[in-house]
Design brief:
Layout lengths: L8 E7 L3 H9 L4 E7 L6 H9 L6 H10 L4 H8 L14 H13 L2 H11 L5 E4 L5 E7 L4 E3 L1 H4 L6 E8 L12 H7 L2 E4 L4 H9 L2 H9 L3 E5 L3 E3 L8 H12 L6 E5 L5 H5 L6 E4 L4 H6 L3 E5 L2 E4 L2 E4 L1 H14 L17
Parallel strand pairs: 1-2, 1-7, 2-3, 7-8, 8-10, 10-12
Antiparallel strand pairs: 4-5, 4-6, 9-11, 13-14
Helix pairs in contact: 1-3, 1-14, 5-6, 8-10
Subcellular location: Cytoplasm
Organism: Facklamia lactis
Pfam family, one: CofD
């Protein structure tokens, strides 16, 4: 979107799920142009139903990012997020924003144009880009040699994942990023990964060939916001270093510069009372392992317990990201003045 004063910095945030909007809400207050690059491999819930009936990328994560970056009246945001209840039969479970995104795409024939139109009405501060121009299918290869097809199916297998990849609907490797995505990565001062599900929110973006290559070659400083909790069927028993190792292995190089790690203990009663057991345990720390992978570690009390969940504290995380923008010379990656530091 166009602003009267050109922002000082450029920040690209890559991910999906519920974690990405948490950070975007704070980032929009910085003196920076924000670009949210959002996964298009979601095949569950309202998004999954819509992508099955209409040739459009799953709109749910795009909708949530729009609301996070919106400066519109709260009533309009609430309407955009409103989800029909179970008594509405056909509309049951669908969010109004999802339907609007799908309808505009069908009207205009272009997802980018539909997002641009809605962004004007929603007074979006920044840009929201789907990672790819078409819906993709996420596949997981497990260590026992079996394969799961579809993002929503992966965690159900409860097996250790060896690697994931993304394919087009036609069964071809996902090569092309959506328009402007690669430019946003290459021109960024700071790239933020997460927070979000490692295998189903972050990696589906990075495994698109053009995006993976851009992240590996950009001069931007790359920050990974490590999850607070492990996830059932994805990252059981993972340390923070395990998360980073998986990312590095998938892209074939050490591209993460800084890792943000929460040090506040999650209350035991929260873990015990998880109804669906999606979140099992708190992610364990392995600071030596992170440093061996060339990462600077910023550890702090990033935990925020709200709405019955363990989330990252938006203000504290954004404060650290702001500090990186203001103090690091981000235009030359790995330059001598940016030494890998001990835990701060």
């Amino acid at each position: 979107m166009t602003h009267a004063n050109k922002p000082r910095y450029k920040v690209a945030v890559i991910g999906g799920g519920t974690g990405l909007p948490v950070i975007l809400r704070g980032l929009k207050n910085l003196d920076a142009h924000i670009t949210a690059i959002v996964t298009v491999a979601d095949d569950g819930g309202s998004s999954g139903v819509i992508r099955d009936y209409i040739n459009v990328v799953p709109p749910g994560d795009i909708r949530n990012c729009m609301c996070a970056l919106s400066e519109a009246d709260s009533t309009l945001i609430d309407l955009f997020q409103y989800r029909f209840n179970t008594d509405d039969d056909f509309f049951s479970g669908h969010a109004i924003g999802n339907l609007l995104i799908a309808a505009l795409k069908e009207m205009k024939g272009s997802l980018s144009e539909s997002i641009e139109i809605l962004s004007k009405y929603m007074h979006i501060k920044g840009d929201i880009l789907p990672a790819a121009p078409e819906p993709l299918i996420l596949n997981a290869l497990f260590e026992d040699g079996t394969i799961a097809v579809g993002e929503s199916k992966i965690a159900l297998h409860r097996k250790k994942i060896q690697e994931v990849n993304v394919m087009t609907i036609e069964g071809e490797n996902a090569i092309a990023a959506a328009p402007n995505v690669v430019n946003a990565i290459m021109e960024a001062d700071l790239i933020v990964l997460g927070p979000g599900s490692l295998y189903t929110s972050i990696l589906p973006n990075l495994m698109i060939k053009e995006i993976g290559e851009a992240v590996n070659s950009t001069q931007a400083h790359v920050v990974y916001i490590c999850n607070i909790m492990t996830q059932l069927g994805e990252t059981e028993n993972f340390t923070d270093a395990d998360h980073v190792e998986v990312l590095h292995n998938h892209l074939g190089g050490t591209f993460i510069d800084t890792v943000l790690v929460n040090t506040t203990e999650v209350p035991a009663d929260y873990i015990i009372n998880q109804p669906n057991e999606e979140y099992l345990l708190q992610v364990k720390h392995d600071f030596d392992g992170l440093r061996r992978q060339g990462c600077r570690v910023i550890s702090s009390e990033f935990l925020s317990m709200k709405a019955g969940g363990a989330y990252h504290d938006t203000d504290k995380v954004v404060e650290e990201l702001k500090h990186l923008l203001e103090t690091a010379k981000l235009n030359i990656k790995n330059q001598n003045s940016w030494n890998k530091c001990p835990i701060s």
